[in-house]
Hints:
The structure holds 2 protein chains of 2 kinds.
Chain A: H1 2-18, H2 24-31, H3 40-64, H4 70-87, H5 90-104, H6 108-140
Helix pairs in contact in A: 1-6, 3-4, 3-6, 4-5, 5-6
Chain B: E1 10-14, H1 18-30, E2 34-38, H2 41-48, E3 75-79, H3 87-96, E4 105-109, H4 114-123, E5 127-130, H5 135-138, H6 142-148, H7 153-159, H8 168-182, H9 184-189, H10 198-207
Parallel strand pairs in B: 1-2, 1-3, 3-4, 4-5
Helix pairs in contact in B: 2-3
Amino acid sequence: xxxxxxxxxxxxxxxxxxxxxxxxxxxxxxxxxxxxxxxxxxxxxxxxxxxxxxxxxxxxxxxxxxxxxxxxxxxxxxxxxxxxxxxxxxxxxxxxxxxxxxxxxxxxxxxxxxxxxxxxxxxxxxxxxxxxxxxxxxxxxxxxxxxxxxx
Amino acid sequence: xxxxxxxxxxxxxxxxxxxxxxxxxxxxxxxxxxxxxxxxxxxxxxxxxxxxxxxxxxxxxxxxxxxxxxxxxxxxxxxxxxxxxxxxxxxxxxxxxxxxxxxxxxxxxxxxxxxxxxxxxxxxxxxxxxxxxxxxxxxxxxxxxxxxxxxxxxxxxxxxxxxxxxxxxxxxxxxxxxxxxxxxxxxxxxxxxxxxxxxxxxxxxxxxxxxxxxxxxxxxxxxx
Lengths: 151, 224
């Protein structure tokens, strides 16, 4: 049973990498885990989702205000993109890049449209990572730390 | 914040992003460094004991080493893009301070802007890391810290012309014993130190000729 979960978790990671949801940075984070810090990746991801919720809200608000302050938008997105990059969230990061391009051109419609994609990728990844960490807990067995939910 | 192991290097990490602070902390701790993280340049300067309006004036009591906890910083790693004081501003302030300028500074940035990189390096940054920072980047930090704080007895022996070539702590003990026994006066002539590695510092001042001019507290970064 335990082996099955471990294998499933491993396979899921492989698939997330192959499909471009995650990149090498995620692997780097996993390599920083040790006996003293066994949940580092999950902690990072949790912190990311907690922190990014606020940033996304800020972006949302900036997008509905008139006139749109593109400098502010760029600033928020820069931070959000940085965080996404730090946990290896490739697809999210890609959408952020597209958003930034529209932002620099002061293209409101492009920003609004892309922002929907950003949120979508952000939420999608969250679901997948929740599953991924759940598999990890199951793989570790009943004595494993229950951990927290993502975000 | 105890000085449990004298041989541990202490890094001050500055980043306004909580994610990146978590990451850099883990990277540094994995490399066995002692870490302090702050979220702004202003807080970094506060921690270093440098006040905005006071460029390490020896007359001012507030920067006296005795008033502040003795925490030594061997390297500062800072994000470039921060609200308020940027990493570049922080770098400049550090290099302008006579008490802090010898602390190696490393800049991190998520953006690969060549002009930004060269500007930072010209201002005295040792390295410029592109984010996300990795273990391979952090592995490059040790030589910079070694340069200004000789903790490795072997390295110390190579550069220490005075000592007899024994490990630093032993030779210092022996020397002190000798001095106590034969030349009691000499102890008082040793430069006023708060750290036990006074002889190392002396050797550093005398023996080495690094790029920059060494101020009186060369080598050891006394946090005031």
